[in-house]
Write a structure and sequence with these properties.
single chain, about 375 residues, Butyryl-Coa Dehydrogenase, subunit A, domain 1, 3 domains, 8-stranded mixed β-sheet, flavoprotein, oxidoreductase, Acyl-CoA_Oxase/DH_mid-dom, FAD, Butyryl-CoA dehydrogenase
Length: about 375
């Protein structure tokens, strides 16, 4: 694994940083459109399907730059679910016809895709889903309700998971476009990540045989592939956010001079900043290692879990440090730090909670 970046990778990073800044300056409702227009939604999709054709390490580097320029974690979460959760899964497991139908539209952002998997009684235990996929003559009849679906009211494609009609053949993964029988509920009033547009989605629809992703009854392995891509890469943008927060904190600690002495001269403050730097660099190593493993064609199930687990908890810890460093002023909404904490807290839940990811790592160790 090369720890350096080529000129082409650095050029892409600078372009994505500028794109992130452009999106940051745009109204919240237009930020996804800005990302799509700049090619961010198709970076890792093959050029044959209109994408950028970049490997996953390079794509992670690009998303780190996006996160440095764009402070909207909700939109970046939705963009990651689209590219890493759905598009890469389609590129890996979809049929040629499915790839031809969907990937060009996903690459350009003509449609934004999302995963609809969690249910009232099936979150961490995804095998407990109760949604049903009934085989009919002309495809499947899908029934059930999903919760906490990202970008739900604007999605152009849902990757969803359902049990077969008799329940004995396991789970089936389907690609479902919005239409009759797909009902999106009201947006959920989440504490953070509000621009991710989480909402419940109720399915009572029929889909064609071509909606089947993978084999009927073998949907759980398909979903695990989607989760591996997502866990490895969906928080790559937070590397840029951590870097930005660290630079802001260092500047604050140098400039703030109570009693004439810079805050940075106090060991307690300096150590807090050092821990923020440590979390950033260890998170980078884990994310790029997971991306590299996937680029090599490895399963990378545990590496992805480690990357997401560590980065999510690092982001939360550093958000708390950034607020604490500023005292009472940091606790004001106008400072932005309470919102950063709420956003970071959400990252410890979506795409697998810390406990779920710890279990994956423990099983990798043979425990």
């Amino acid at each position: 694994m090369d720890f350096g970046w080529s000129a082409a990778q650095r050029e892409l990073s600078e372009r994505m940083r500028a794109l992130g800044a452009e999106a940051d300056a745009a109204p919240a409702d237009q930020r996804m459109t800005v990302l799509a227009r700049g090619g961010a939604l198709g970076l890792a999709i093959s050029p044959d399907h209109g994408g950028g054709g970049f490997d996953l390490v390079t794509t992670a580097f690009a998303y780190e730059a996006l996160g440095a320029g764009l402070r909207d974690a909700g939109v970046l979460l939705a963009a990651g679910a689209h590219l890493f959760g759905v598009a890469l899964t389609l590129a890996r497991l979809g049929s040629p016809a499915q790839q031809t139908t969907w990937l060009p539209r996903l690459a350009t952002g003509e449609i934004v895709a999302t995963i609809a998997a969690t249910e009232a009684d099936a979150g961490s235990d995804i095998a407990a889903v109760e949604a049903r996929a009934h085989r009919i003559d002309h495809g499947f009849r899908l029934t059930g309700e999903k919760r906490y679906v990202t970008w739900a009211d604007r999605a152009g494609l849902f990757l969803t998971l359902a049990r077969d009609h008799a329940g004995e053949r396991g789970l089936t993964t389907l690609l479902v476009p919005p239409g009759p029988g797909v009902v999106v509920g009201a947006l959920l009033p989440t504490s953070g990540l509000r621009t991710a547009r989480l909402a419940p989605v109720r399915f009572a629809c029929e889909v064609a045989p071509e909606a089947l992703l993978g084999r009927e009854g073998a949907g759980l392995p398909v979903f695990q592939v989607a989760m591996t891509f997502e866990r490895a890469l969906i928080l790559a943008f937070r590397l840029g956010a951590l870097d930005r927060a660290l630079h802001d904190a260092v500047r604050f600690a140098r400039d703030r001079r109570p009693g004439g002495t810079p805050l940075a001269r106090h060991d307690a403050v300096a150590h807090r900043l050092a821990r923020m730097k440590q979390r950033l660099e260890t998170s980078r190593l884990l994310v790029y290692r997971a991306a590299w493993e996937l680029d090599q064609g490895h399963r990378a199930h545990a590496e992805a879990a480690l990357a997401k687990w560590h980065l999510a908890e690092s982001a939360l810890a550093s958000a708390l440090d950034a607020m604490t460093l500023r005292g009472g002023a940091g606790y004001l909404d106008e400072a932005g730090h309470p919102g950063d904490i709420d956003d970071a807290l959400g990252a410890t839940i979506h795409s697998g909670t810390s406990d779920v990811l710890a279990t994956i790592v423990a099983r990798w160790l043979g425990i």
